[in-house]
């Protein structure tokens, strides 16, 4: 039996005259079961890059990875395999008379393996076309509501304008979730992050082709363990209040603010995709219409996890005005921690962008601040990745020097990992 | 007298006075909020063996509910007092977010027409940690208790209410005087008040044990027993009793166990002492961390008409001197035609108008003929 819980971490005491309320809401899901329990089952798509740059060896590794992923797909799950270059083609199912997806059976798995084996490197890269085809394929079976894809590329999106990518990407938003992986050092982190973020998936780097199969198997295993097809985070704020932002802050930083869908004038719904047995933290910030008198209390937000229209969990964010400065001056440790982690992600990305643009001064300042934040918030992974890009002289003050020689892969690893957060040290 | 009021264990509980949740029969603690359930919300059933002298022993406690919803948790939703919006079951307005008042925020009781108490959150505190408990018969016997919870602890609101009710139950439960007379009567009154304070301290201890917070709850204690013309008063801490006669000088019947009182005893003026930074530091209280919980007792003979007032510092902060208190009470008496319940409400309203900096609790008993014409109400 799936169940959700919500816990709120905040300092509810506001100083006289204050109106801004911050809270971390931890939502935990247990007993989610296997993917495909709801509707007409789950759908899994594997999108692999077969452009010329992949080469024989790269395509062979991608074939292994696709097979490793399909090995993890539970029988009965709808699936399809798409090969992408400057155009996109459906690799499996070959016979599309019954729709563009097949149900996984031992035989279907063998057939897919055979079809994948026939792929050869050729052509350029236009990922929008892959996504567009995937969206069409994914919606080909009515009633399938839980749809997920893995996308693999090795290069930049050179054969499609950014505008075309945007239009085609938009056709996939809300249709399927997509975990994006880039292999090698010739792809662009920002580009793939934009796709992954729009499609509520993750982005990561696979340094060498021979590491792809393990990563694909692990991604598919995780997808198969998400028994909750879709859930929304709903945020109610009082009349006249302004929701400053709604941000997922763990396991990764993802700003959800712009994804608001109006439920009613006071309530917005923010899609959070599918859920397995996991815990996610959200940072909600609300500006109340007016400060009330000391001693008054009001609700600043109702934060709910909603399945369809059913409220599965609720947390209350409160505001109590007080003249006790010992109470009002404290910053809640969870709020402080995740505020720091969100800034960490931002300064790493800005620092790397400045470095790429040759603006060493900005890069040094931003990455210095990153080193400081990583130290303060106990993010050891970020610190170790930063050390490969900068020499950290004083972590406490953020004094760093840019390294003269930096491995491109190290820089990309720092970039892709920038949004991963650590939890609060209790 | 040989009346046999119901023992506390026989009292029925209908709803939890702290949160309004209906309580299971014989439950000792509220399933919803964990508050102790010790007293009937609609008064104990009339004792069938009660003699003529005291046919209507009662100790009702009716939490006042905004919007008058008689069935908490059921029936129509209450409107928001701020914007008229709908209150969600989570206790907050669905439109403006205002917190709906809790039953515990404003509690009222009037066991007889001559005795009443009101306990209110005030304006500046986030909850009501004061409590009152009263019992009375129509013939001139009454017990009044006021406790003021110390706000540094998690469950002082639960502790103060449990303490006040436990003390009231002891006072109401052990009434008979047998053949005692003269000094033996005084000794009996004294023993009863000491036992009541001990029961209150015991109730605080029970709440402390049920909790596992790091700061144990504690509260003040002031209680009075009126039996005909005999009045016995006991206190621990800085909640007070005043005697405000219709004719003659008003007086404070208690001496605060407080830093300010120590200063006054040492010669500092009252106004100066009570304005000091530590003025509200109390030197004695009820709680597991208290050394001395025995009430300081005084005995009085009521030889004229007047008002007995018990109150927390939420009221006396705005009228500390007895003459000033007397003026404020007289004004309330005049505007409410001497009805104790309306007077208590009026005094609470007045304290809120002065700033409502603390919880406000007022318990009143009318002694002797009324100064105002007609029946109260």
CATH fold topology of the largest domain in chain A = Rossmann fold
Report the sheet with the most strands of chain B, covering strand number, pairing sense and barrel closure. 7 strands, antiparallel
Helix content of chain B: 10-25%
Physical arrangement of strands within the biggest beta sheet of chain B = 1-2-3-14-13-9-10
Distance between the termini of chain A: 29 Å
What is the CATH level 1 assignment of the domain at 105-367 in chain B? Alpha Beta
Care to describe what's here?
Chain A is of the alpha+beta class and 426 residues long. Chain A has three domains: 3-33 and 228-330, Immunoglobulin-like; 42-224, Rossmann fold (3-Layer(aba) Sandwich), CATH 3.40.50.410; 334-417, Four Helix Bundle (Hemerythrin (Met), subunit A) (Up-down Bundle), CATH 1.20.120.1690. Helix content of chain A is 32%, strand content 31%. Chain A has eleven helices and 20 strands. In chain A, the strands form four sheets. In chain A, strands 4, 5, 6, 7, 8, 9 and 10 form a seven-stranded mixed β-sheet that branches. A six-stranded mixed β-sheet of chain A has the order 2-18-17-11-15-14. In chain A, helix 1 runs antiparallel to helix 2. The longest helix of chain A is centred in the last third of the chain and has 24 residues, at 333-356. Chain B is of the alpha+beta class and 377 residues long. Chain B has a domain at 105-367: Phosphatase 2c, domain 1. In chain B, the strands form three sheets. Chain B has a seven-stranded antiparallel β-sheet with strand order 1-2-3-14-13-9-10. In chain B, strand 4 and strand 5 (141-148) form a beta hairpin. In chain B, helix 6 (322-336) packs across helix 7 (340-353). Chain B is globular. The two termini of chain B are 31 Å apart. The interface between A and B is medium-sized, with 21 and 17 residues.
